[in-house]
Specification:
mainly alpha; 3 strands; 7 helices; Arc Repressor Mutant, subunit A; 171 residues; three-stranded antiparallel beta sheet
């Protein structure tokens, strides 16, 4: 016998008993850590002994309550996502990312306030930029010469009026 656990928040919503039964059926298809499933409406109707139209009404109720996200998957079935059944690891990861974002924002704010306290002249900024460009250019791997193209010939070739060969590149 299979068992599912239902969040108490779902039981506290204003949900019809048959719609709740459909939610439980969808959750039974989402075994393990999965939060999505894709049974056809025919399958759901057969399992609940209801018509397809009734299943569609229950799905609309669940969608309106935010208990199910429905995405078209083609002509055979929909993808049903149960947002309340998200993996705990995903929630923990999201919380860690949120904490890191908060820490980075705080660090940037303190850095910004520290930078605003520094007074630099435009001449100092120019020298720093020039030194940065020199050090950056010496460390780059793409120090090859750039190609030059005859754009008129290239345009004519793209329009189909002429043939543009690679050997015609100007050097």
């Amino acid at each position: 016998m299979n068992f599912i656990s239902i969040d108490s928040e779902i039981l506290n919503t204003n949900i019809d008993g048959q719609a709740l039964k459909l939610y439980c059926l969808l959750e039974s298809y989402c075994y393990g850590d999965k939060n999505d499933c894709f049974p056809s409406q025919n399958t759901l109707a057969a399992r609940m002994h209801k018509s397809i139209r009734t299943i569609q009404r229950y799905l609309k109720t669940l969608k309106d309550l935010g208990l199910v996200i429905i995405k078209r998957r083609g002509s055979t079935s929909n993808l049903y996502i149960l947002p309340k059944k998200l993996n705990k690891k995903v929630q923990e990861t999201a919380q860690k990312v949120q904490e890191k974002c908060t820490a980075v924002k705080a660090a940037l704010k303190t850095k910004k306030s520290a930078d605003s306290n520094k007074i630099t002249t435009s001449n100092d900024n120019y020298k720093n930029h020039k030194n940065y460009k020199k050090s950056y250019k010496s460390n780059t791997f793409n120090d090859y010469t750039q190609r030059t193209y005859d754009f008129n010939k290239l345009e004519q070739a793209l329009l189909g009026n002429a043939c543009y060969e690679y050997d015609e590149v100007l050097k």
